[in-house]
Amino acid sequence: MPPRFLTLADVAETLNISAAQTYALVRSGDLPAIKIGGRGQWRVESTALEEFIGRKYEQTREFVRQHPFGSDGDDSAG
Q1: Domains in the chain: boundaries
Q2: Coil, helix or strand for 68?
Q3: 69: which DSSP letter?
Q4: Per CATH, is 5-68 categorized as 1.10.1660?
Q5: SS3 (DSSP) at 45
Q6: Over 70: is that where the pLDDT of 5 sits?
Q7: Fewest CB within 10 angstroms: 2, 3, 19, 62, which?
Q8: 34: helix, strand or coil
Q9: Is the pLDDT of residue 18 over 80?
């Protein structure tokens, strides 16, 4: 059974992003998290991370619908 709560380092590893990017997602409210313990360490609930990923998939699908065939000018694919 996976842990209920993840550290920001765990989240960063899962999303393959930096710790700073993860912290920014939490601070912006885009990724819900809680602060616990005497040192106020951030924790992200596993289900909140999965919901975040689901929202990002939906946003990406919508972006692709509105910008077919890389018309956004992003030439990182080639």
Answers
A1: 5-68
A2: helix
A3: G
A4: yes
A5: strand
A6: yes
A7: 2
A8: strand
A9: yes
pLDDT digits (tens, 9 = 90+) for 19-45: 999 999 999 999 999 999 999 999 999
**Which tokens belong to 33?**
């998290």
- pLDDT, tens digit (0-9, with 9 covering 90-100), for 42-76: 999 999 999 999 999 999 999 999 988 855 555 55
Extract the tokens encoding 43.
């924790």
> Rounded to the nearest 10 degrees, what angle do helices 46-66 and 8-15 cross at?
30
Identify whether the C-beta of residue 49 lies closer than 8 Å to the C-beta of residue 56. no
Beta carbons of 14 and 53 less than 8 angstroms apart: no
d(CA 37, CA 21): 22
- Provide the angle, in degrees to the nearest 10, between the axes of the packed helices 8-15 and 19-28: 110
